[in-house]
């Protein structure tokens, strides 16, 4: 994780706009995407009740945090957007993502497989993530804030 953390720190220090930062961080995550071994065996199991998150790192100045999300089959998020830029990389399984416009019209779908990395920034970041597979999926998310301090990466939830 040291090389990833150093790379993200360098990307954030470039002080570009949120979209540019997301692109720079995504490049670093592609170069340094860890394996599921970054989590303990117990953490990799997830929860039968809902997807789980594990904080892996928070930058001391709160400029970014790295969180692992574990999704058992069928688990999903609500439709939401974010408080800041976000980059994610799938390290196990497949995550299905649905993208929405500001009127909550479905505008795109994608299946993100192991090794896939994507980044985005508000506005235009309304989405829902769903494990549509029959095995556990794990992804690493890097947010442009300390999500442990603010409690969530979501800015709003939509019905």
Search tags:
159 residues; alpha+beta; Jelly Rolls; 23% helix; 38% strand
Summarize the structure in words:
- There is one protein chain.
- The chain has 159 residues and is an alpha+beta fold.
- The chain has one domain (2-158): Jelly Rolls (Sandwich).
- It has helices at 2-13, 18-32, 41-45, 147-150, and strands at 52-58, 65-71, 79-82, 86-92, 94-100, 106-113, 117-120, 127-130, 137-143, 154-158.
- A hairpin with a 6-residue loop joins strand 1 and strand 2.
- The radius of gyration is 15 Å and the shape is globular.
- The termini are far apart.
Q: How would you sum up this structure in a few lines?
A:
By secondary structure, this protein is an alpha+beta fold.
Write the layout of secondary structure elements.
Elements: H1 2-13, H2 18-32, H3 41-45, E1 52-58, E2 65-71, E3 79-82, E4 86-92, E5 94-100, E6 106-113, E7 117-120, E8 127-130, E9 137-143, H4 147-150, E10 154-158
Helix pairs in contact: 1-2
InterPro entries: CDO_1, RmlC-like_jellyroll, RmlC_Cupin_sf
Keywords: Dioxygenase, Iron, Metal-binding, Oxidoreductase, Thioether bond
Binding site for Fe cation: 80, 82, 127
